[in-house]
Design a protein that fits this description.
Layout lengths: L2 E5 L4 H12 L3 E6 L18 E5 L14 E4 L6 H6 L1 H22 L2 E7 L26 H21 L3 E6 L2 E2 L10 H10 L4 E4 L5 E3 L1 E2 H12 L7 E3 L4 E3 H12 L5 E4 L14 H7 L7 H13 L3 H5 L12
Parallel strand pairs: 1-2, 1-4, 2-3, 4-5, 5-6, 6-11, 7-10, 8-13
Antiparallel strand pairs: 9-12
Helix pairs in contact: 1-6, 3-4, 5-7, 5-9, 7-9
Amino acid sequence: MKTVLITGAAGFLGSHLCDRFIDENFRVIGMDNLITGDLQNILHLLEHPRFTFYNHDVTQYISMDEDIDYILHFASPASPIDYLKIPIQTLKVGAMGTHNLLGLAKAKKARILIASTSEIYGDPLEHPQHESYHGNVSSIGPRGVYDEAKRYMEAITMAYHRFHGIETRIVRIFNTFGPRMRLNDGRVIPAFIGQALRDEPLTLFGDGSQTRSFCYIEDQVEGIYRLLMSDYHLPVNIGNPEEITINQLANEISDVIGKPLEIITHKLPEGDPVKRKPDISKAKEILDWEPQISREEGLQKTYAYFKSLPKEKLWNTEHRNFERYYK
């Protein structure tokens, strides 16, 4: 039986990956410091005989006695609210955390996949974004802590691959949505749905003409799994190339909920990308992967999940563990 270590295991993507690897008959070790993750996301796994959880910060030294075959590094704040509130921790998990996990991969002779992001392209001058595009990122802007942490993560991963011969994989994740997202973390789909469920107007930044491309979580997990099991070590975009404006998204969420929604507008935040669309030709060619679940179906499933949450989660606007990391 193969063993996989998944960091960020209590987060949105990490928890779904834990489920997938349990389903694939792996022994799964989940690791999370719960700064933005939620133990509720993996509560159903805690008594599973093939699942073990460690509450640990990957920026601290990692020592494990178990043999490990695969490592998936998904520990990181991943929303605008998160990485603006905890900028230093965001940088540390991308730099020190990745360094620690690459060292562990070297010691265990494990294959490691790191979760990079479409944000490494910044506010792109190329559209759609192909893996060969080097990006348009401000290192000193407010979003730079996240963008540059991920760019450094890619650089040190490639250094370990070239210098130490580590088996590495790099996934560049585009906007992903689905159950287990935090309602109030600043990402547009949970933000809109949360506001609608609280009978609040939708908050639209800018004029709503900026675009995004949304991939449902099941498709994203499938792409990540295929990349891990492939022989390809360079970055691969995994996302849905169906591009829409934020105005269109607001209308689609209104249709899902079944009522018109009021909209208020605010100034577009500094550094917010105007366009985002993945070129997934590499994923199609190398992984035989492309999204299968429509945005409409994904929004229906996501809305049903959020609607089922208890009221205290619906109204919660702060994460309980942020205060520990303000220093």
